[in-house]
Design goal:
This protein is of the alpha/beta class. It is built from ten helices and eight strands. About 50% of the residues lie in helices and about 15% in strands. The strands form two sheets. Strands 1-2-3-4-6-8 form a six-stranded mixed sheet, with helices on both faces. It has a two-stranded parallel ribbon with strand order 5-7. The radius of gyration is 17 Å and the shape is globular.
Length: about 250
């Protein structure tokens, strides 16, 4: 069985974490969430690691939750997704994301917790929670209005339409749009630059940047999770899941 999360040290102090389910467009099932949680925790615990890079295999970041796995999870899928969001949102070391291809649902909201993010020119973003009969997650109902403005956040979260990397940059989800296929190399360059800096100073700066919102982000993730769990078993969500799976 191929591991759904791969890790490798790509340069001194840099740990690359790769979502590896290319046959499913790197959709996140329970095993993959568990692998991501373990990989981030290992990077946090390893003193030799100074920066983490998060990416997806085969030119795709992630198409979001694996709907089939999620629909069969009886709440377990939602719980482990929240565990992942708690892990990434409270990480002390810098995390740099490299986005190519699809960044759907949690594939977009997790970027709100990365310190830096870069997107290839053909990347496509979407927050289809309402479309699936669900609600925002990952603290996005607080963080996205804060960085993108309330009107833009409402457009992205309520309509759930796909949007290009330029719009993601304008909304503050990524630092820059780069040439197609170059997001990982740029992310690795930035991670190497971070790894070369005094690590305690980097960690302190990250903590100070996040300090003002840390409590409300944690509270929002928990509140969203409660509503998300309720929505998962709602008639609207079940109908949306069934319609989605019929198209597969």
């Amino acid at each position: 069985m191929t591991a759904t999360v791969l890790t490798q040290t790509t340069a001194p102090g840099v740990l690359q974490i790769t979502i590896n389910r290319p046959d499913r467009r790197n959709a996140l099932d329970r095993a993959t969430y568990g692998g991501l949680i373990a990989a981030i925790a290992a990077g946090e615990a390893d003193e030799s690691v100074r920066a983490l890079v998060l990416t997806g295999a085969a030119g795709c970041f992630t198409s979001g939750n694996d709907i089939k796995d999620f629909a069969a999870a009886s709440g377990d899928g939602a719980r482990i997704a929240i565990d992942f969001l708690t892990t990434i949102s409270t990480a002390k070391k810098p995390i740099v994301a490299a986005v190519e291809g699809f960044a759907v649902g949690i594939g977009t909201t997790m970027l709100l917790h990365c310190d830096l993010a870069f997107a290839g020119r053909s990347a496509s973003f979407r927050l289809p929670f309402v479309t699936l009969g669900l609600c925002p997650e990952g603290g996005s109902s607080h963080l996205l209005p804060m960085i993108a403005g309330s009107k833009r956040a409402a457009e992205l979260l309520m309509l759930g339409e796909a949007f290009p990397p330029e719009a993601a940059a304008e909304a503050g989800l990524v630092n820059a749009v780069v040439a197609e296929g170059e997001a990982l190399s740029i992310a690795l360059d930035k991670a190497r630059a971070l790894a070369a800096l005094p690590p305690q100073s980097v960690a302190l700066t990250k903590m100070l940047l996040k300090r003002g919102n840390a409590a409300v982000v944690a509270e929002t993730i928990a509140l969203e999770a409660r509503h998300f769990g309720e929505r998962l078993v709602s008639a609207e969500a079940q109908a949306a899941f069934a319609a989605f799976l019929m198209k597969r």
